[in-house]
Design goal:
The protein has 141 residues and is mainly beta. It folds into 2 domains: 9-70 and 126-140, Roll (Chitinase A, domain 3); 74-121, Beta Barrel (Thrombin, subunit H), CATH 2.40.10.330. Helices cover 5% and strands 43% of the residues. The protein has 1 helix and 9 strands. The protein has one helix spanning 44-50; strands spanning 9-17, 23-26, 33-36, 58-63, 77-81, 96-101, 104-114, 117-121, 131-140. The strands form 2 sheets. Strands 1, 2, 3, 4 and 9 form a 5-stranded antiparallel beta sheet that branches. A 4-stranded antiparallel beta sheet has the order 5-8-7-6, with no helix packed on it. The longest helix is centred in the middle third of the chain and has 7 residues, at 44-50. It is elongated. 13% of the residues are buried.
């Protein structure tokens, strides 16, 4: 049977958990995740784990931050005055905002709202975390 290699389109079922055991994502009840190996469509550690698998293979992996969403960058946490935000926006903690930057769209999470000051975090929500996955390669094709 063929092993998954760079350039192959693969379909993978997965369950993603954090080190404390809490689940952050899963393909359960959905179609498997489909991507092409080597195109950077998924995080590096996930792609590395799938490469070399055969359909029907399963594995458990632990992906460190440097092969996932990177370490947290404290420079991406900043405060803005509420008046700098759209007037119809009522920011609340944990709200995710999409903004346009010179590099394209980015997501910011509202960390705190204190009077007229809103603290925003531009780090990906899973930055700085080790990610654990149960993977099952469904198909190569």
């Amino acid at each position: 049977m063929a092993k998954a290699k760079q350039g192959d389109k693969v379909k993978v079922h997965y369950i993603g958990t954090l080190e404390d055991g809490s689940q952050f994502d899963s393909s359960e009840g959905r179609e498997p995740l489909e991507f092409v190996l080597g195109e950077g469509m998924v995080i590096e550690g996930f792609e590395k784990a799938v490469a070399g698998m055969e359909p029907g293979d399963s594995c458990s992996i632990s992906i460190p931050p440097e092969e996932a969403y990177g370490e947290r960058n404290e420079e991406l946490i900043f405060r803005v005055e509420r008046e700098q935000m759209p007037p119809d926006l009522d920011p609340e903690e944990d709200m995710v905002l999409e903004v346009q930057t010179e590099h394209g769209p980015a997501q910011l999470t509202v960390v705190a709202v204190e009077g007229d000051i809103v603290t925003l975090d531009g780090n990906p929500p899973l930055a700085g975390k080790t990610l654990n996955f149960e993977l099952s390669l469904v198909e190569i094709g």
